[in-house]
Amino acid sequence: MQLLEPALVDRIVHESMAVLENTGVLIEDAETFSKVRALGLPGDESSMRIRFPRATLEQALRDAPKAITLHDREGTPHSHLADDRTHFVPASSALRILDRKTDQVRDPLTADFVEYVKVCDGLDHIAYLSTAFIPTDVPKDIADAWRLYLHLTHSKKPIVSGAFTAFGVRPMAKMMECFRSDKQDLIDRPMSIFTCCPNTPLRWSEDSTQNLIDCAEAGIPIEVVPVLLLGMISPCTLVGALVLHTAEVLSGLAIAQTVRPGTPVAFGGAPASFHMRLMTNPMTAVEVLRVYCGYAQIAKHLDLPSQAYLGLGDGKFNDAQAGAESGIGMFLAAMAGFNSVSGPGMLDYVNCFSLEKLVFDDELAGQALHFARPTTIVDDLPAGPLIEELTRDGHLLTSEHTLAHWEDELYIPGIMVDRTNREQWENAGSPTQKDRAAKRIESLLADYEPQPIDREFAQFAQDLLRGASSETDFTFPSIGK
Fold first, then answer.
1. What's the mean pLDDT in 124-140?
2. Can you tell me whether residue 194 is helix, strand or coil?
3. How far apart are CA 386 and CA 389, in angstroms?
4. Which pTM was predicted?
5. pLDDT tens digits along 70-107
6. Where do the CATH 3.20.20.480 domains begin and end in the chain?
7. Nearest by Cα to 205 from 20, 29, 30
8. 298: Cβ contacts below 8 Å, ≥ 6 apart
9. Which numeric CATH code is attached to 64-371?
10. If you write DSSP's letter for every residue of 408-468 in order, what string do you get?
11. What is 458-471 written as a DSSP string?
């Protein structure tokens, strides 16, 4: 899907590079500013702004890999982020969850996260996992690493993760290295992609900048995710927003490539609109969807893997609004060819995670992927013989062509999408969507197969996390068997 004329894409990239040359980015912490300066990037100490010569940006684009291959816990290639290959992933990092049994919003706990990993691990169309929400029963300064630990102990799939503190990446990298022979092996076979967010407009905080540097040094793939607010801290027009968005991504890309040329970086984003009357930040607003589709083209123009926050809902519940916003986002993401799409399971401006929504979104993801498949001739041209058979027999239900191709061509959703007629539905007990979600979740939990790890890793990781926390008097929550 093409939203922008090619000449306009060229001009947007040109303008964004000019912004980085002339205005640059603000590094908000003096010590971190010195670290970036020490990399060889020109900066002004009085303003703490780093500027990026066009030659530096062009070299960074040459150094950046054109694809990212994520591997599972055992080191086997799992997902290849390139071309128009789309992978749907749960969104990150909600502060609350919608309790599926009480329908009340509450703080998440470790037990909720373990349940989420077990359910997500078995979904058909969710390619890999994310640190979807933040358990509140561990100290805040290690909550990011704790989520990674819970994932590593319950799933072999890759994960989208990241750190909320300036020191958070290092212990997380050490945990992942436990599943590789050494640091270089983790670089060669990464199991995670970490999110690094600039502070719009054109600012990098101490935490985000240090995370960017640490990820590049550890060889952890990065998705640079600007969070524009159209009309507030971003131009409200499409082209102006895309110039700013592209500049922020390229600034992170350039810093990462300066630290370690060849660091995998995805062109990401989580833009939102500013509601001029309610002062809220909808991420599914129609103008925001245009920003997503626009920067998908820019990412492909620059030959970079792409990421987007699409397939989520801004409302509070699993209602018609959530279904519409999530479905529209997923179909656009697949049509635009985004490589990694964070969004399934999320409500309320990325503040609330719902396991019920996740299992429904898994079905939406399956349909979006089916829709976006390349169109090919499937024994149906020339069509004359097939049409003659249809007119002769009055149907094609038992034709060789149907029998050969219907399973690939006619998508049959699971129980989360109601395809029954009324009589069939009533005979099944008239299940509601909530009933179907409960049945699907319980089935996935029952089918979950434990992913055993060495006890030595559990002890190592917990010792590592305890040493990284400023709190000393706490007990790790039980994570079950």
1. 97
2. strand
3. 5
4. 0.96
5. 999 999 999 999 999 999 999 999 999 999 999 999 99
6. 64-371
7. 29
8. 4, 9, 12, 13, 242, 246, 267
9. 3.20.20.480
10. HHS----TTS----HHHHHHTT---HHHHHHHHHHHHHHH-------HHHHHHHHHHHHHH
11. HHHHHHHHHHH-S-
